[in-house]
């Protein structure tokens, strides 16, 4: 994630993420931990392309995920 801004289409006045950046290493496991309402589920929804960011980019191995096949993208992830 690089400088991502996001608002849900159903709540356009409520900013969910602002200038959010996150880098995860491909050689390990990443855990998103935080209190309710901190953006964990939103981050995953953006990563899986249920939504696209209003600003910024979501990259996977240096490639903008907007250019990737959504079914393939979702098939390579494991979530608990």
Structure report:
- The two termini are 20 Å apart.
- It contains 2 helices and 5 strands; from the N terminus they run ββαβββα.
- The protein has one domain (2-75).
- A hairpin with a 2-residue loop joins strand 4 (59-60) and strand 5.
- The strands form 2 sheets. The protein has a 3-stranded antiparallel sheet, with no helix packed on it.
- The chain has helices spanning 40-47, 70-75, and strands at 2-6, 17-20, 55-57, 59-60, 63-64.
- The chain is an alpha+beta fold.
- The mean pLDDT is 94.
Low-confidence stretches: none
Rounded to the nearest angstrom, the radius of gyration is 12 Å
User: What is the strand content?
Assistant: 15-25%
- Placed side by side, the strands forming the largest sheet appear as 2-1-3
Number of strands: 5
Class of secondary structure makeup: alpha+beta
Major sheet size, sense and barrel closure: 3 strands, antiparallel
- Name the average pLDDT: 94
Q: Provide the succession of SSEs.
A: EEHEEEH
Portion in helices: 10-25%
Shape: globular
Query: What count of domains describes the coordinates?
Result: 1
């Amino acid at each position: 994630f690089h400088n991502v801004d996001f608002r849900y289409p159903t709540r356009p006045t409520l900013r969910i993420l602002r200038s959010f950046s996150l880098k995860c290493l491909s050689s390990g496991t990443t855990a998103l931990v935080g209190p309710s309402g901190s953006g964990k589920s939103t981050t995953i929804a953006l990563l899986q392309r249920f939504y696209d960011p209003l600003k910024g980019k979501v990259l996977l191995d240096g490639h903008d995920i907007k250019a990737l096949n959504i079914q393939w993208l979702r098939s390579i992830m494991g979530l608990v």
